[in-house]
């Protein structure tokens, strides 16, 4: 695998290198919270000043495992479903699921901006089950390409926080209308964190995180079932336990403390009517 200069990505697109750093570094550890060989390969193949994102941590590896677990449940019941990965970045979820045998019959739609898709094409193997769509997730034309006759599982991993609130609600509303019976899974940052990014969240002396204007609490995620037409149910998805503080944070009794519950990041699964 040839070495690629990661500086070809900028703005929000560059945040995929942030998540790759966390996930790939974790996958290299003997006690890592995720096994992700392709993340390790990508991390080694992209030349970049990763430490400008700060010290790597378990957060994105645990998030990926949570998405994998819910996707696995859906694919066990809908093996020929369409999986749509919005703003997929350098996620390697397809290959993790393929190792379990759950990707044999699905069609995987990978959606992201052209520079990111070009990088995926250079560094990740081609597969007949993967349909690359080089476009914004907000460009609804991707919906016309998706064959959802056997079900649809849509992910927005690390995406919605970077969008304007109205754009988020409109996107979910349109997905619910176009993919009845499908699922939509996304993660959110809490409001306090969103406000910090709007003021300029410095991860190091060399990097300021892009603004994240969309914040959501876990309870607000559940309330989307009442707020958005076509959403019949919503579930709060817990992160799996990690090491140290990440293990403590996943302790169920802690989430019954109101201040912690409102202040933590969340993952929401929406079920469409």
TrEMBL record:
Question: A Gene Ontology biological process annotation?
Answer: methylation
| Record has Methyltransferase as a keyword | yes
Q: Which keywords does this Swiss-Prot/TrEMBL entry list?
A: Methyltransferase, Transferase
Name of the molecule in the record: Methyltransferase
Care to name a GO molecular-function term for this sequence?
methyltransferase activity
**Pfam families membership:** LCM
The UniProt record lists the keyword Transferase: yes
The record's annotation in InterPro entries points to: Ppm1/Ppm2/Tcmp, SAM-dependent_MTases_sf, TcmP-like
């Amino acid at each position: 695998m040839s070495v690629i200069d990661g500086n070809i990505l900028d703005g929000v697109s560059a945040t995929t290198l942030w998540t790759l750093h966390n996930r790939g570094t974790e996958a290299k550890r003997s006690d890592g919270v995720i096994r992700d060989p392709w993340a390790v390969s990508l991390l080694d193949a992209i030349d970049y000043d990763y430490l400008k994102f700060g010290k790597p941590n378990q957060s994105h590896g645990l998030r990926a495992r949570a998405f994998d677990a819910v996707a696995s449940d859906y694919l066990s019941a809908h093996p020929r479903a369409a999986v749509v990965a919005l703003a997929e970045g350098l996620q390697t979820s397809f290959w993790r699921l393929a190792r379990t045998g759950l990707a044999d019959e699905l069609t995987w739609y990978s959606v992201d901006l052209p520079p990111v898709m070009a990088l995926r094409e250079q560094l990740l193997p081609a597969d007949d089950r993967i349909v690359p769509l080089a476009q914004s997730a907000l460009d609804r034309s991707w919906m016309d390409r998706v064959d959802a006759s056997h079900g649809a599982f849509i992910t927005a991993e690390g995406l919605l926080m970077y969008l304007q609130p109205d754009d988020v609600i409109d996107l979910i509303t349109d997905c619910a209308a176009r993919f009845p019976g499908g699922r939509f899974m996304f993660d959110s940052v809490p409001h306090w964190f969103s406000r910090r990014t709007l003021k300029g969240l410095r991860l190091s002396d060399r990097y300021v995180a892009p603004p994240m204007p969309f914040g959501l609490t876990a309870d607000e995620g559940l309330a989307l079932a009442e707020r958005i037409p076509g959403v019949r149910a919503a579930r709060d998805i817990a992160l799996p336990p990690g090491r140290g503080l990440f293990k403590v944070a996943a302790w169920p009794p802690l989430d019954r403390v109101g201040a912690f519950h409102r202040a933590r990041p969340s993952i929401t699964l929406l079920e469409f009517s």
